[in-house]
């Protein structure tokens, strides 16, 4: 199994069908495949060897989809860059993955210049777009025009397909190694449900393409031969306009985006009758938003996915029928996807009784190869073939999974994962901070918000805004605390550990 396989099928069976629609620009599968093969040839001409890592930092575009296919076509490995990260975080991931070629679009030229200066291993930067760029950078369209198409390497199976960097509890990102088999297995499992893709449909990319949730949908819709409609990023009005203009059939949004969409003043003015399927995931959805969505889209099939990057990323799926069942199961994470086994276990790996909380684990062809250059971290979570998610939950008598907490203190805000340890590390870098703890608190808009509880050094002063600004110099803006409490001391256990559960309880009681 390999990611580029759908292109060969498309070229044989429907070469003149629209492959991509990016604004006013449409390209057929024949044109799309030609450009992918030329970009792969261009990468080869720049010295890309089998297994080399090639990164891209950019907004959603048809060029991004060409990158996703051309890199494995050239027998190399994808490294999508999280554009919400700080410069320091991006540099660290590029150095760690030993990236030698980076694609940068118009929106990130300035950042790309700064990153190149700090990454001595970067041999080439390719500019994707029509704006100004440094003279030494390679122009994307010129590279395609000057390069002959090459044969698909058909990199496949257990060969590394992509590195996705995800935050770690130690404060440093880990590169999740996903194979071609991992990604195709997850996509095929989703497609096998029958409610994940619309035959001969049109899927709208509005979630970021660097995110594995969107990439999984890209792979599933590619397997189905569907058309990819693209907007640069999520904007509620633009999504509504695009659905109407291009008769989009399939959407994927995180719950925050759903709320923004249905709250938009022009929502009722758009013809959204083309929509057939509406999938969501990446963070919890509030009952109020779910109920409104079900009412506003009475003829649309809703599906939810639960998983994590290490699971390529899907472990469980909640089907449309259960969404409209009126039972408490509509607030579950669904049941094991066709490609996945799911259990809930105790600390010794023994199954918990039904209804009792334990750690969620998953097994199957979707489980990652491991963490890049981190064998000890890999061994800590992969045991006997089971991926230990660090999430807590329970199963009911029909296999529905209910996620109740995150053992690793992960905070999911607006669909993005934030680990408390990395925010705490940043806060400790401020001279006024003596000790701190970071927890997730419920938030109407973002699902959760990052909340910090801080003890200042004797005689020192600092405001919440000062601490927030400090964190933003080290981490992505969405990781900075949205709220801060200043206290005299943090609650500690007898073993000297901060009692975060008590902090959450106290903060909620005080209405912070």
TrEMBL record:
Domain annotation AMP-dependent synthetase/ligase: ranges: 8-372
Keyword Mitochondrion among UniProt keywords: no
Annotated keywords: Ligase
Single GO term (MF): ligase activity
Residue spans crossing the bilayer: none
Stretch forming the signal peptide: none
Family matches, as Pfam families: AMP-binding, AMP-binding_C
Residue ranges annotated for the AMP-binding enzyme C-terminal domain, each copy included: 422-497
InterPro entries with a match to the protein in the record: AMP-bd_C, AMP-bd_C_sf, AMP-binding_CS, AMP-dep_synth/lig_dom, ANL_N_sf, ATP-dep_AMP-bd_enzyme
Name of the molecule in the record: Long-chain fatty acid--CoA ligase
Organism: Tsukamurella soli
């Amino acid at each position: 199994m390999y990611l580029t396989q759908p292109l060969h099928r498309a070229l044989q069976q429907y070469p003149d069908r629209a492959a991509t629609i990016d604004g006013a620009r449409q390209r057929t599968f024949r044109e799309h495949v030609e450009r992918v093969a030329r970009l792969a040839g261009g990468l080869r001409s720049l010295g890309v060897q089998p297994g080399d890592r090639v990164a891209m930092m950019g907004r959603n575009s048809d060029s991004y989809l060409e990158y996703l296919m051309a890199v494995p076509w050239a027998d190399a490995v994808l490294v999508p860059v999280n554009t919400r990260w700080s410069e320091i975080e991006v540099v660290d991931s590029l150095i760690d993955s030993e990236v030698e070629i980076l694609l940068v679009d118009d929106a990130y030229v300035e950042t790309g210049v700064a990153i190149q200066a700090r990454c001595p291993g970067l041999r080439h930067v390719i500019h994707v777009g029509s704006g100004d760029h440094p003279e030494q950078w390679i122009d994307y369209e010129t590279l395609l025009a000057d390069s002959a198409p090459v044969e698909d390497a058909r990199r496949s199976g257990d060969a590394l397909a992509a590195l996705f960097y995800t935050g770690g509890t130690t404060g440093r990102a880990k590169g999740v190694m996903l194979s071609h088999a991992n990604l195709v297995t997850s996509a095929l499992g989703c497609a096998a449900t029958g409610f994940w893709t619309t035959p001969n449909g049109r899927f709208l990319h509005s979630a970021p393409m660097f995110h594995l949730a969107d990439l999984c949908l890209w792979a599933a819709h590619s397997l189905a031969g569907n058309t990819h409609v693209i907007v640069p990023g999520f904007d509620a009005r633009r999504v509504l306009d695009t659905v109407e203009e291009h008769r989009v059939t399939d959407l994927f949004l995180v719950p925050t985006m759903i709320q923004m969409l249905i709250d938009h003043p022009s929502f009722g003015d758009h013809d959204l009758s083309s929509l057939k399927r509406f999938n969501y995931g990446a963070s919890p959805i509030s009952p109020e938003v779910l109920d409104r969505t079900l009412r506003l889209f009475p003829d649309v099939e809703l599906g939810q996915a639960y998983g994590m990057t290490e699971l390529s990323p899907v472990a469980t799926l909640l089907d449309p029928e259960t969404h409209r069942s009126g039972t408490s199961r509509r607030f579950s994470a669904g049941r094991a996807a066709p490609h996945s086994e799911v259990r809930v276990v105790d600390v010794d790996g023994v199954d918990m009784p039904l209804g009792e909380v334990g750690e969620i684990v998953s097994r199957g062809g979707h489980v990652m190869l491991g963490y890049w250059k981190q064998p000890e971290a890999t061994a800590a979570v992969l045991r006997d073939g089971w991926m230990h998610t660090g999430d807590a939950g329970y199963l009911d008598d029909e296999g529905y999974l209910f996620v109740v907490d995150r053992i690793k203190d992960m905070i999911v805000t607006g669909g993005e994962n934030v680990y408390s340890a990395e925010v705490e590390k940043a806060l400790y870098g401020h001279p006024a901070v003596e000790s701190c703890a970071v927890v997730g608190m419920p938030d109407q808009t973002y699902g959760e918000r990052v909340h910090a509880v801080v003890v200042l050094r004797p005689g020192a002063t600092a405001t919440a805004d000062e601490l927030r600004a400090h964190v933003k110099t080290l981490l992505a803006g969405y990781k900075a605390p949205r709220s801060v409490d200043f206290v005299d001391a943090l609650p500690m256990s007898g073993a000297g550990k901060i009692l975060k559960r008590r902090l959450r309880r106290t903060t909620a009681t005080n209405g912070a």
